[in-house]
Amino acid sequence: MTQSTTEPIQLDTLTQELAAIQQTGSKRIAILGSRHVPITHQQLIEMMSYALVLGGNRLVTSGATGTNSAVIKGAMRADPNLLTVILPQSLDQQPKESRDQLEQVIHLVENPEQNELSLGEASALCNREIISRCQQLICFAFHDSHTLLKTCEEAEDDRKLVTLFYFD
C-alpha cells in the first residue's frame, strides 16, 4: 500500500486543530490584518478580540489602522494587561491617529532599529516577531495582501494554528 506524502501532514494538522479546540486554558493569540477594513468588519474584529480577552487569552497584534486598531480597541476594553502590541518601527514613525491609541497600550514594543527600512520590510520582520510569541494566528486579509499571506505561511511552517479570513 502506497502512502500519500500529504496524509501525515493532514493528520498532524487535524491533530493540532483538535488540540487547540479542546484546550481550556488561555492561549497567546496573534491577530493581524489589513489596514483597509470596512467599519462594520472593524466592529466585528473588535468584538472578537474583546471576547477572546474576556476568555483569558493574551492577544498580540501590531499598531496599524484597520484590523490591528480594532483588536487593540476590543482588548483594551476587556483587559489592557492581556494585550501586547509590537510595532514595526518606533512609535514616532506611526501615523498620528494610531499614536493616540498606542500611547494607551501598557505592553508596547517598539523597533526603532527598523526605522530606516521600508514599512513593508519592517512589517514583515514585525510579523515574524509576533508569530514567535503566539500559539495561534488569526488573520484578516485580501487575496492580494502579500505580506499578510506570507506571514500566514510562515506561521504554518512554524506549526502554529492559522485561521485566515478573506475580505474579498
Describe the protein in words.
With 168 residues, the protein is of the alpha/beta class. The protein has one domain: Rossmann fold (3-Layer(aba) Sandwich), CATH 3.40.50. It contains six helices and six strands. A six-stranded parallel sheet has the order 4-3-2-1-5-6, sandwiched between helices. It is globular and about 45 Å long. It starts with 6 loop residues before the first helix and ends with a strand. Residues 1-6 have low confidence and may be disordered. This is DNA recombination-mediator protein A. It comes from Dactylococcopsis salina (strain PCC 8305) (Myxobactron salinum).
Question: Which terms would index this structure?
Answer:
168 residues; alpha/beta; Rossmann fold; 6-stranded parallel sheet; 6 helices; 6 strands; globular; DNA recombination-mediator protein A
Our measurement of the CA-to-CA distance between the termini, rounded to an integer number of angstroms, reads 42 Å
CATH topology: Rossmann fold
The number of distinct β-strands equals 6
Give, in order, the helices and strands.
HEHEHEHEHEHE
Helix content: 40-55%
Protein name: DNA recombination-mediator protein A
In terms of topology, how is this protein built?
Blueprint: H1 7-22, E1 28-33, H2 39-54, E2 58-61, H3 67-78, E3 83-86, H4 96-102, E4 107-109, H5 119-132, E5 136-141, H6 146-157, E6 161-166
Parallel strand pairs: 1-2, 1-5, 2-3, 3-4, 5-6
